[in-house]
Inverse folding.
């Protein structure tokens, strides 16, 4: 295991100069293009100089100038969340008031196109269950 680690370390150390130095490019007699850190003997080659950081540096906005487009998008998202939260609170308030009325008043009636009709006990219990389920699903 120690031998493997030392061999890997030596190989890594030998490849580091190649990464930051020059690369030589040439074409052999069969037309195959080769790249190497050492120039070939007796063959014309082209020198390729690699940049010190081939990946470049990550783009970051200057600290004194914030990304205004991102700020606008963040503000819009916050406003939308605030609107949704306010709507959810209104719904919960109305649902709780409805539930209290359904539970406390056994003689409920509803307006229909034909006129006013009284809810049966089954209909009242069904509406209580539906309202309770909605409160459980949407209200904290």
């Amino acid at each position: 295991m120690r031998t493997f680690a030392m061999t890997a370390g030596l190989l890594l150390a030998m490849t580091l100069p190649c990464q930051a130095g020059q690369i030589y490019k040439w074409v052999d007699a069969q037309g195959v293009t080769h790249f190497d850190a050492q120039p070939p003997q007796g063959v014309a080659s082209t020198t390729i100089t690699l940049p010190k950081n081939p990946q470049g540096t990550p783009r970051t906005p200057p600290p004194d100038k914030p990304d205004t487009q991102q700020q606008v998008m963040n503000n819009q998202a916050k406003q939308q969340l605030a609107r949704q939260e306010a709507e959810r609170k209104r719904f919960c308030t109305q649902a709780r008031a409805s539930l209290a009325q359904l539970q406390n008043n056994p003689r409920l009636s509803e307006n229909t196109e034909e006129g006013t009709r009284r809810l049966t006990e089954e209909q009242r219990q069904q509406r209580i269950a539906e309202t309770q389920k909605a409160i459980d699903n949407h209200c904290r």
